[in-house]
Amino acid sequence: MENGQIRKALSGFYYVYDNGRVIRSRGRGVFRNRGVTPLVGDFVDYEADGDNDAVITHVHERKNELVRPPIANVDQALLVFSMKEPDFAPRLLDRFLTVIESYGVEPIICLTKGDLLGEEDSRKLRPYVDYYSGIGYPVIETRIGDDGLAATIRPFLEGKTTVLTGQSGVGKSTLLNSLMPELELKTDEISDALGRGRHTTRHVELIEYGGGLVADTPGFSSLDFEHMEKEDLSDCFIEFAELSEQCKFRGCLHLKEPKCAVKAAVEAGDAARFRYDDYVLFLQEIIDRKPRYPS
């Protein structure tokens, strides 16, 4: 019995990495009966089946798994957002942060196109950047054609499995190309691989980079909260999660409850109003969701 990690899934095959070797594998038929689908990122046991092929016999327990893109055991997500062209979108960033946090994945915020900011744009953007950084999120600011980009980002990727995702049209393709030019992918091909436009590829692959693994995926095709309950939402707003411990009522939703520490912090200016407004908006989405019944 051998073991390794699935690094790529393509056309019904799983490519398992084991000490420098890549073994083309299929899943056992019994997996289907058990409702088990191996994912890229899974640590697995396998048995040789001929000279170059193998059969995956066991999938080890996952620390997390994403559905779209289908990948497991992710450490962090590099969320790429532009500061200009398109304009910075804090509500969309909060949506990404909430979904990422809900899966137990650590977010890193990467802001691109800093060189396009005028003085007025920079003045408006700075409070957002300072706030996200102040509540504990790593924030990387980059410029178009930044020769030091790889050196700046590499320390964040070392020893980690990272998913690259974010806002459309913000330079994710250029970023990935600058990090890994050895892939020799055209920019538009990378854009497709990251889910822009109508591209529907399901190809997911983990690529070694900077002492870690970077996931080249179709991107996050879903940013809804279908997998969350309303009581879970405040845990995904990291500054609210800490404040919630001071609320009078356990399970406080921070709406109309008395002696709510989150609302008090917002009123006092200790927590950002824009973040609270996004929290309320997302909470209403979850509350308005049609009930799910077992099939």
Describe the structure.
The chain has three domains: 2-61, OB fold (Dihydrolipoamide Acetyltransferase, E2P) (Beta Barrel), CATH 2.40.50.140; 71-216, P-loop containing nucleotide triphosphate hydrolases (Rossmann fold, 3-Layer(aba) Sandwich); 230-288, Probable gtpase engc, domain 3 (Ribonucleotide Reductase Protein R1, domain 1, Orthogonal Bundle). The chain is built from nine helices and 13 strands. The protein has helices at 29-34, 90-102, 119-134, 149-157, 172-179, 187-193, 238-244, 261-268, 273-288, and strands at 2-10, 13-18, 21-27, 43-48, 53-59, 65-66, 71-72, 76-82, 106-112, 139-141, 161-166, 204-209, 212-216. The strands form two sheets. A five-stranded mixed β-barrel has the order 1-2-3-5-4. It has a two-stranded antiparallel ribbon with strand order 6-7. The relative contact order is 0.12. The model is unreliable at 185-201 (pLDDT under 50).
Average pLDDT reading: 86
- Written as H for each helix and E for each strand, in order along the chain, the element string is EEEHEEEEEHEHEHEHHEEHHH
Q: Which structural class best describes the helix and strand composition? A: alpha/beta
Q: Any idea of the CATH topology of the largest domain? A: Rossmann fold
Largest sheet: 5 strands, mixed, barrel
CATH class of the largest domain: Alpha Beta
Major β-sheet strand ordering: 1-2-3-5-4
Cα-based radius of gyration, to the nearest Å: 21 Å
- First-to-last CA distance: 38 Å
Percent helix, as a range, is 25-40%
Which percent range describes the beta-strand content?
15-25%
**Tally of individual domains:** 3
**Number of separate helices:** 9
User: Given the C-alpha coordinates, what overall shape results?
Assistant: globular
Count all strands and give the number: 13
Fourth-level CATH superfamily of the largest domain: P-loop containing nucleotide triphosphate hydrolases
CATH architecture of the largest domain: 3-Layer(aba) Sandwich
- Contiguous uncertain segments of 5+ residues: 185-201
